[in-house]
């Protein structure tokens, strides 16, 4: 048997029914160790299994110190038992709004061990948005850091009566069991009377036991609600089952350990509760690896330009280039085992021919089954539409295009903002251009431009520059000059802000015209 055939045989046997094996995997050498099946039941069994099989192995490192899997599991059970003690029931949502600190790992697995549904919110999310997500999911409690939840009164007003468990980022030590018992008895009295629960994390965890059993859960039970970035609109909560979290962990663990051994478990400075951070955390538990935690934001997290593609709707990487392979411009990579990906047209599920640009849709064991809608049962979807425009070559490699919402009509046909931005940036006076659009019917393309220092150009000149290259017909183009662009935490232009501002400007202009007409 050829080496590539052995790899193909391993993954063909593990691929879910209906998911075809991508050709490129057959070109890899065999795995160092055959990939294990994900554990049954609760996704937290990934951690339970790791602690049972390798209790003394380091689970994470933080500020020069490490913590073993056995000790981490004990801390996670403290969270689980503490949540149970204040009345959090199986199936209830618990928001986790913490920075990249060990308590974020403990809270995440603690919620799962208690049978709850985790709603992770990473540290780059503003408090107002964190409150919106907490309220939208109807969370029974939120585990939050004092540093992130600066105005707890406003948070309470936004989310209503909810238990807020405040966590100290630097754990203090209680000087005696009497202090713990006194704080705990006071906490139980307040919660028993139905008071709004402002729970001191140290008191809660200090009185909870560090052992127990994971709550039973079926593979199809809801486990995690993971929010998208909200670059082009309000962030949506993607729904993951225990089975999809476990499947994503095993497959990403294969990518890290079996194929790409040099891959770091968590990219440098990626927030732990970001979708990519959680995927790597779960993968580390699946392979008993050590996660290096590093606080702070990063401008190096660029999934679309580094030969890998992750999205909030996937519990693992969705696309990736082979390690040590040739990097191609704009290449996102190939689908990982268990993921099926297609390029489709608007409103269609039929696959488009290689080379044509269309929307990327994905499905598979580690893909979300739908989105959270408050007050309504979740609708299960077969395919997830990513909203990203891509193309695929003959070999099955996918290439980045743009967001589907942003396309514009021209005499050359439909083009993406990226193509328009390249045309405008070719003007000698332009340093950077970003294209958005208004939401009004037949909305125009709004081009925000930063000029090069010492250069001068008018809006009319740049609009003519575009039309000379795109034709006179199609979507109207309007150029505006700015000193800076609104950015996401990852350094990408925040199209939603451009779109909202442009719409407000257009509506104001219409109102001014109507006022002038009424005066006349």
CATH homologous superfamily caption of the largest domain? ANL, N-terminal domain
Helical content band: 25-40%
CATH topology of the largest domain: Rossmann fold
User: What's the shape?
Assistant: globular
Could you say which structural class the secondary elements and strand pairing correspond to? alpha/beta
Low-confidence blocks of residues:
1-24, 26-34, 171-184, 190-196, 258-268, 297-305, 502-520
Domain AMP-binding enzyme C-terminal: 419-489
Protein name: Long-chain fatty acid--CoA ligase
Domain AMP-dependent synthetase/ligase: 49-300, 309-372
GO molecular function, one term: acid-thiol ligase activity
Question: Describe it for me?
Answer:
A 7-stranded antiparallel sheet has the order 11-12-13-17-16-15-14, with no helix packed on it. Strands 4-3-5-6-7 form a 5-stranded parallel sheet, with helices on both faces. The chain has helices at residues 3-14, 45-53, 69-85, 102-113, 127-136, 152-159, 177-192, 201-207, 242-259, 275-286, 417-425, 459-470, 495-519, and strands spanning 58-62, 65-68, 93-97, 117-121, 141-145, 163-167, 198-200, 222-227, 237-241, 291-292, 308-309, 319-320, 331-335, 339-344, 358-364, 384-392, 398-403, 408-410, 413-415, 430-437, 445-451, 477-481. Helix 9 (242-259) packs across helix 10. It is of the alpha/beta class. The protein folds into 2 domains: 24-400, Rossmann fold; 407-511, ANL, C-terminal domain (GMP Synthetase, Chain A, domain 3, 2-Layer Sandwich). The longest helix is centred in the C-terminal third of the chain and has 25 residues, at 495-519.
């Amino acid at each position: 048997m050829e080496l590539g055939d052995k790899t193909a045989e391993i993954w063909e046997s593990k691929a879910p029914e209906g998911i075809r094996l991508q050709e490129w995997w057959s070109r890899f050498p065999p795995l160092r160790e055959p990939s294990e099946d994900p554990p049954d039941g609760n996704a937290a069994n990934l951690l339970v299994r790791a602690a049972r099989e390798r209790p003394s192995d380091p689970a994470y490192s933080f500020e020069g110190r490490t913590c073993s899997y056995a000790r981490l599991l004990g801390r996670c059970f403290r969270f689980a038992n503490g949540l149970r003690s204040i009345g959090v029931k199986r199936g209830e949502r618990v928001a986790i709004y913490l920075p990249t600190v060990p308590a974020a790992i403990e809270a995440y697995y603690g919620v799962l061990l208690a049978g709850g549904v985790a709603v992770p919110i990473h540290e780059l999310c503003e408090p107002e948005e964190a409150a919106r997500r907490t309220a939208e999911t109807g969370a029974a409690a939120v585990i939050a850091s004092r540093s992130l939840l600066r105005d707890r009164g406003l948070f309470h007003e936004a989310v209503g009566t909810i238990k807020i468990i405040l966590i100290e980022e630097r754990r203090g030590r209680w000087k005696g069991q009497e202090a713990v018992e006194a704080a705990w008895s006071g906490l139980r009295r307040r919660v028993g009377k139905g008071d709004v629960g402002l729970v001191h994390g140290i008191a809660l965890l200090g009185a909870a036991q560090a052992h127990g059993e994971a709550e039973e859960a079926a593979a199809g039970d809801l486990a995690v609600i993971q929010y998208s970035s909200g670059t082009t609109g309000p962030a949506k909560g993607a729904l993951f089952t225990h089975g999809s979290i476990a499947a994503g962990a095993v497959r990403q663990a294969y990518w890290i350990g079996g194929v790409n051994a040099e891959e770091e478990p968590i990219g440098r400075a990626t927030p732990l509760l970001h979708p990519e951070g959680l995927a790597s955390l779960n993968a580390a538990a699946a392979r008993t690896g050590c996660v290096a935690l590093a606080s702070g934001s990063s401008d190096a997290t660029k999934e679309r330009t580094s030969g890998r593609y992750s999205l909030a709707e996937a519990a693992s990487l969705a696309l990736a280039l082979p390690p040590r392979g040739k990097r191609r411009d704009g290449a996102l990579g190939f689908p990982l085992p268990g993921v099926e990906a297609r390029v489709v047209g608007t409103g269609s599920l039929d696959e488009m021919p290689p080379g044509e640009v269309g929307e990327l849709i994905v499905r598979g064991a580690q893909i979300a089954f739908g989105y959270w809608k408050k007050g309504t049962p979740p609708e299960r979807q077969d395919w997830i539409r990513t909203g990203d425009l891509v193309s695929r070559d003959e070999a099955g490699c996918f290439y980045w295009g743009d967001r589907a919402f942003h396309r514009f009509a021209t005499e050359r046909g439909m083009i993406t903002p990226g193509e328009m931005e390249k045309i405008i940036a070719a003007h000698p006076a332009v340093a950077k251009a970003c294209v958005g659009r208004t939401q009004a019917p037949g909305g125009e393309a709004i081009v925000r431009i930063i000029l090069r220092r010492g250069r001068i150009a008018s809006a009319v000149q740049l609009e003519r520059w575009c039309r000379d290259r795109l034709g006179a017909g199609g979507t109207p183009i309007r150029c505006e000059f700015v000193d800076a662009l609104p950015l996401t935490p990852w350094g990408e232009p925040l199209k939603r802000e451009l779109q909202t501002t442009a719409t407000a400007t257009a509506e104001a202009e219409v109102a001014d015209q109507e006022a002038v007409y009424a005066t006349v």
